[in-house]
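quick one
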Amino acid sequence: MLDVLVLISGSGSNLRALVEACADPEYPARIVAVGSDTEAPGFAHAAERGIPTFIVEPRAFDSRDAWGDELRAQIDAWTPDLVVCAGFMRILPAGVVRAFTPNIINLHPALLPLFPGAHAVRDALAAGVTQTGSTVHIVDEGVDTGPVIRQVTIAVEPGDDEATLHEKIKHIERPLLVDTVGAIARADINLKELVAS
Ligand code: GRF
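structure w/ 5-O-phosphono-beta-D-ribofuranosylamine:
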């Protein structure tokens, strides 16, 4: 059984998909805790299943590194096998990344290396691409630069705006996340090998 810790900042629809997958006894992972940088609405999905939550707010610390040290300590306390950033809207300090990589992955709403950063859906629309999608990748010290694990593509349709396109992307990235975490748990995906290649 793979012990997973999920980091979120917002609505947590991807967390919810993972929580639901973990309710299936055949699924090879379980969520040990959910952390956030804020009082995230998505905590409700954890609470429904009695999954513990924690908040480490940057504003409570004098520096980014001090915030990162506490975040790392809170994560470490759960000794997860894998950390999943699913809509965690902060760039992790290098100390946190180094502590967990390659066992820390992120879900990004674009086909990396295209459109990294916080406005991926808006940037894809502005660029006029006809296809976009979602990427699961290993977190490294850059912004959305780590090795790609898996991607799913969808068409951008006429009339799509940022909100509708992001909703369509979320629709495909939930199963992408569930399948990827399942594959890591079954050792069908080897994160160390991906970093080395
Ligand atoms: C997702 O689109 C994810 O790719 C991005 O943030 C969004 C989180 O959505 N990093 P939700 O909070 O899981 O609904």
